[in-house]
From TrEMBL:
InterPro entries the record matches: DinB-like (IPR024775), DinB/YfiT-like (IPR034660)
Source taxonomy: Bacteria, Bacillati, Bacillota, Bacilli, Bacillales
Protein name, as recorded: DinB family protein
Domain DinB-like positions: 13-147
Organism: Paenibacillus whitsoniae
Signal peptide: none
Length: 158
């Protein structure tokens, strides 16, 4: 089996992409919600920071050889429970970046065999460590699209 080791620069670049996505947006706009059942820009960022926490745990569980199913989380309940819209987008992004840096320092110490280690996700799928990191990068890309859609609705309101 051939494992593609994630591009660390793409992983680290997710922070800059998120910063760029919210550049020039006011605090009021950051917390505005298109509908009561949809997330604000700040809530999307909070979700991504939460996701980064969970993925960081999954990474370590895989490396430690844990046999338990990799943890899932209820994203809506986490965002709501954390009262994410009351948080600061810059603080959320600082936490997100800190985890990226911390994880990248770990990644640099890993061997090809480490990247091939596996865990089982909540769907019952077996994933390599490389898969988990690739999926994280793709997940951020998905939510960058969500941020753009929210910003487009904001622009249409003006």
């Amino acid at each position: 089996m051939s494992i593609t080791i994630p591009d660390f620069s793409a992983y680290l670049h997710t922070h800059a992409q998120l910063q760029e996505a919210i550049a020039g947006i006011s605090e009021e706009q950051l917390t505005w919600k298109p509908r009561s059942d949809q997330w604000s820009l700040t809530e999307v960022l909070s979700h991504l920071a939460d996701h980064n926490l969970v993925v960081s745990f999954r990474i370590r569980a895989i490396l430690a050889g844990a046999t338990a199913q990799l943890p899932a989380f209820d994203q809506d309940a986490w965002v709501s429970g954390a009262k994410a819209n009351g948080g600061s987008a810059s603080d959320i992004l600082a936490a997100f970046q800190a985890l990226l840096i911390y994880n990248t320092s770990l990644f640099q110490r890993l061997s090809a065999e480490d990247w091939a280690k596996t865990g089982v996700n909540f769907k019952g799928q077996t994933l390599t460590l490389a898969d988990v990191v690739h999926s994280f990068i793709a997940h951020v890309q998905h939510h960058l699209g969500q941020l753009e859609r929210i910003k487009n609705v904001l622009k249409a309101r003006v």
